[in-house]
Specification:
lyase, ACT_dom, allosteric enzyme, Rossmann fold, 17 helices, threonine deaminase activity, four-stranded parallel beta sheet, ACT_ThrD-II-like, seven-stranded mixed beta sheet, Alpha-Beta Plaits, 3 domains, about 20% strand
C-alpha cells in the first residue's frame, strides 16, 4: 500500500478560516460558505443519506466504524449533489442553451436527473461499451444519450466539441468549484450525524468528493483526519502530490471505474494537496473483498469505487483513528461486473477455489472424487470433464473444479484431502 502523508496535523485551530484559506494563507477556490449555500440549494433534492454502523469493521479496527451510504442517494451515487448545484447556478441564457456531459455512468445519471429537475435540456456522451443498465438509466432520467468512442477520453472530446458547436454548457464531473461545493455537503452531513468522528475515508478519483468533504470538515473540525483512497492501477494523486501539480498516469486500469481517472482536476488538486491528510492505494483484491463484505455483512450493494474506503480499512485496519466514517460513494455496479467481482472477492478471501486434477477414465471415478470433496464439506459450484485433450493418456481424464470453501484454512484442507486420496492437483 502506497501512502502519502500530508500536512494534516499542521492545520491548527483556524476554525471557519480554513473554509477560505489553505495552508500558508493561500486562498482556496471553494469555501465553507459555498458548501453551506449548496446545502440550502439541495434541500428537498438530494437525500440526507443514512450513516450505518458496522459491527464487523468496528471489531476489526478496534474503534467505531460508520458507513455513509451515498450508494442509496438519488441516481445511486453522490454525483447528483454537485451536478444539481452546478446547473442551478447557470444563468437563464446558459440554461436555455442546454448542458452536455461525458461519463461512463454516475456523473451521466447525476447530470441527467439534475437537468430534468431544473427544466434544462441535457445531452450525455457515453462510451460505446458503457454498461447497458447505466445507459438506460441515464435516458430514463431525461438525457439524450449519444454513444461515442471506446474510452472516456474519446467521449470527453466529443462532448467538448458538441459544447463548442452548440453553445451547450459543459458540466465537468469534478473540476469546477460548484461541483466541489455540492459534493462537500456530504461532509456537513457526516459532522451532523457523527459529531465525534475522528477519521473520514473517501474514494479519490478526480478529487471532487474528497476536496468538497475536506473543505467542509476541516473548516469546522480541523482535527478530523481525512484519508483519500485510490486504486493502485489508477493512482494519479501520489505522483501529483509529490510533483506539486497534477500529473497524468497513462492507461489507468482498475475495476473501480468511478475512480479510474487519469489525471487529478486542477481545482480539486489544490484543495486535496492542502487539506487531505493522506492518500492510500488499494489493490484489486482489496476492492473485491470490500465489495463482498459490504454485500454480505452490511447488506449493501456497492460498486468497486464506492467500496474503496472499506478496502483501505481491510488492508490496514490498525492505522485508523476512530470513530471512522467510510463514504460509500456509489452503488451503480453492472450486474455482469458484480458477478465477476464477487467471485474474485471470494477467491481473494480464500472462499473460492479453482483447481484441476487428473483421474483414471473409468466408471465411478468422478463419483469417487466427489465423495472426497463431500467428506471435507467443499461445495462444488462448477465442474468440467475433459477426455479428448492430446496431453492426456488414453486412460486419463482431466477435471476442472470450482469450489466454494470456508476460508484459506479450508482450502488447504481440501487440497490435502485430494492429495491423500492420490490425486495430482494443480491450481
Amino acid at each position: 500500500m502506497a501512502v502519502h502523508v500530508g500536512d494534516g496535523d499542521d492545520h491548527g485551530d483556524g476554525g471557519d478560516a480554513l473554509g477560505r484559506e489553505g495552508l500558508g494563507g493561500r486562498a482556496l477556490p471553494v469555501t465553507l460558505d459555498d458548501v453551506r449555500e449548496a446545502q440550502k440549494m439541495l434541500s428537498g433534492v438530494a437525500r440526507t443519506t443514512a450513516l450505518e454502523g458496522s459491527r464487523h469493521l468496528s471489531r476489526l479496527i478496534g474503534a467505531p466504524v460508520h458507513l455513509k451510504c451515498e450508494n442509496l442517494q438519488r441516481t445511486g451515487s453522490f454525483k447528483i449533489r454537485g451536478a444539481y448545484v452546478r446547473i442551478a447556478a447557470l444563468s437563464e441564457q446558459e440554461r436555455a442553451a442546454g448542458v452536455v456531459a461525458a461519463s461512463a455512468g454516475n456523473h451521466a445519471q447525476g447530470v441527467a436527473l439534475a437537468a430534468s429537475l431544473l427544466g434544462v435540456r441535457s445531452t450525455v456522451f457515453m462510451p460505446q461499451g458503457a454498461p447497458l443498465p447505466k445507459v438506460a438509466a441515464t435516458r430514463d432520467y431525461g438525457a439524450e444519450v449519444r454513444l461515442h468512442g471506446q474510452v472516456v477520453d474519446e467521449t470527453l472530446s466529443a462532448a467538448r466539441e458538441y459544447a463548442r458547436r452548440t453553445g451547450a454548457v459543459f458540466i465537468h464531473p469534478f473540476d469546477h468549484p460548484d461541483i466541489i461545493a455540492g459534493q462537500g455537503t456530504v461532509g456537513l452531513e457526516i459532522l451532523e450525524q457523527c459529531p465525534e468522528v475522528g477519521t473520514i475515508v473517501v474514494g479519490l478519483g478526480g478529487g471532487g468528493l474528497a476536496a468538497g468533504i475536506a473543505v467542509a470538515v476541516k473548516a469546522l473540525r480541523p482535527d478530523v483526519r481525512i484519508v483519500g483512497v485510490q486504486a493502485a492501477g489508477a493512482a494519479a494523486y501520489p505522483p501529483s502530490l509529490a510533483a506539486g501539480h497534477p500529473v497524468p498516469v497513462e492507461a489507468p486500469v482498475t475495476m473501480a471505474d468511478g475512480i479510474r481517472v487519469g489525471c487529478p482536476g486542477v481545482v480539486p488538486f489544490r484543495i486535496v494537496a492542502d487539506l487531505v491528510d493522506e492518500v492510500r492505494t488499494v489493490s484489486e483484491d482489496d476492492l473485491s473483498s470490500a465489495l463482498l463484505l459490504c454485500l454480505e455483512r452490511a447488506k449493501l450493494v456497492v460498486e468497486p469505487a464506492g467500496a474503496s474506503p472499506v478496502a483501505a480499512l481491510l488492508a490496514d485496519p490498525g492505522s485508523f483513528r476512530g470513530p471512522v466514517v467510510a463514504v460509500l460513494s456509489g452503488g451503480n455496479v453492472d450486474p455482469v461486473l458484480l458477478q465477476a467481482v464477487l467471485r474474485h472477492g471470494m477467491a481473494a478471501a480464500g472462499r473460492y477455489l479453482s483447481l484441476r486434477l487428473r483421474l483414471t477414465d473409468r466408471p465411478g471415478a468422478l463419483a469417487a472424487l466427489l465423495e472426497v470433496l463431500t467428506q471435507v464439506d467443499a461445495n462444488v459450484l462448477d465442474i468440467s470433464h475433459v477426455r479428448t485433450d492430446p496431453r492426456l493418456a488414453l486412460t486419463e481424464a482431466e477435471v476442472e473444479l470450482h469450489l466454494e470453501t470456508k476460508g484459506p484454512g479450508h482450502c488447504a484442507e481440501v487440497g490435502a484431502a485430494l492429495r491423500d486420496a492420490g490425486y495430482l492437483v494443480t491450481t
